[in-house]
Amino acid sequence: MKILITGGAGFIGSNFVNYMVEKYPDYQFVNLDALTYAGNLENLQKSEEKPNYRFVKGDITDRELVDSLVADGVDVIVNFAAESHVDRSITEPDIFVKTNIMGTQVLLDVAKKHNIKKYVQVSTDEVYGTLGETGYFTEETSLAPNSPYSASKAGADLLVRAYHETYGLPVNITRCSNNYGPYHFPEKLIPLMIINALKGKELPVYGDGLNVRDWLYVEDHCAAIDLVIHKGKAGEVYNVGGNNERTNIEIVKRILKELGKSEDLIRFVQDRPGHDRRYAIDATKIRTELGWEPKYTFKTGIVKTIQWYLENQKWWERIISGDYQKYYEQQYKNR
Ligand code: NAD
């Protein structure tokens, strides 16, 4: 089997590449990534050494390039490539529409042209919008995205669905809750808080800190996508979630406790516009139909993650010393 993974130099994509290249030595893997600010080849050192892995630098909106890669015997496409940061989508929505919607359309067209066996779109629970105090997102929940990021992901999901309904393309969509774990870019909540705490810097928490997210350790997400590739029924959507609802402030306090730092470092900052209050996933379908079970609880996953950031200081030091630092200063300057 030959699998084209797009966006495989980002956080989840690189974890997935490393997981699959190791697990399936007889498969061939091609990783197509544009290496935006979020792509980092350092994440892939384990796979680089393996003969069944190849990296191609390029954009998913480049039809000619995607066509030439898929024409070379690709059986499956897994699309992680995206602009993924909600805050950035509020200030620069254009690139979100280009990569997330138009890029997906190019991949779908090429997949159709070459009759590939499976197309997997890695989507997000954010397409469902927000929940009140109770209830869960199921695969039947209506799409109601609230940010330019989630709207672009929802647009892509609808195209994927349409290519199945109109052309019979064998597709799956996975909608996952918030991931955490190794190689998570320092702009996202958990790595940002770990790194700031380690540096003795303030920990900026949006609003009242009571927004709820359902956290999933990234390796459990990788295992879910592996199952969907091999066992997912064409045309189906699968929600993936760890049943680990936590408020942002609980996460921050937990990190400070694990690192033995004071809660005085917490600083509440002005909330993000359109900030969804609560996400929670009902993952019954993937559990019962495909037999998926997460291996990590939040307790085991967060300890492993903190340990990884302690052991890989060079990895994140290099990132936060570059352009990211300018972005960070801009983002929190006037809040
Ligand atoms: P990320 O931002 O860390 O990585 C995205 C990768 O895509 C980067 O390597 C980047 O270089 C690449 N990329 C961006 N534009 C590209 C383009 N035009 N062509 C080729 N490559 C391009 O994102 P992530 O957190 O790893 O998320 C991966 C996918 O999973 C995304 O589609 C995201 O919507 C989805 N998702 C993420 C989460 C989460 O918690 N991080 C949760 C649910 C779903």
Automatic annotation (TrEMBL):
Record's Pfam families?
GDP_Man_Dehyd (PF16363)
Domain NAD(P)-binding, by residue range, is 4-304
EC number in record: 4.2.1.46
Q: Which cofactor does it need?
A: NAD(+)
- Reaction catalysis annotation: dTDP-alpha-D-glucose = dTDP-4-dehydro-6-deoxy-alpha-D-glucose + H2O
The source organism is Aneurinibacillus danicus
Task: Give the protein family.
Answer: Belongs to the NAD(P)-dependent epimerase/dehydratase family. dTDP-glucose dehydratase subfamily.
Q: What lineage does the source organism belong to?
A: Bacteria, Bacillati, Bacillota, Bacilli, Bacillales
User: Which CDD domains does the record associate with it?
Assistant: dTDP_GD_SDR_e
Q: What sections of the sequence does the record tag as coiled-coil?
A: none
Official protein name in the record: dTDP-glucose 4,6-dehydratase
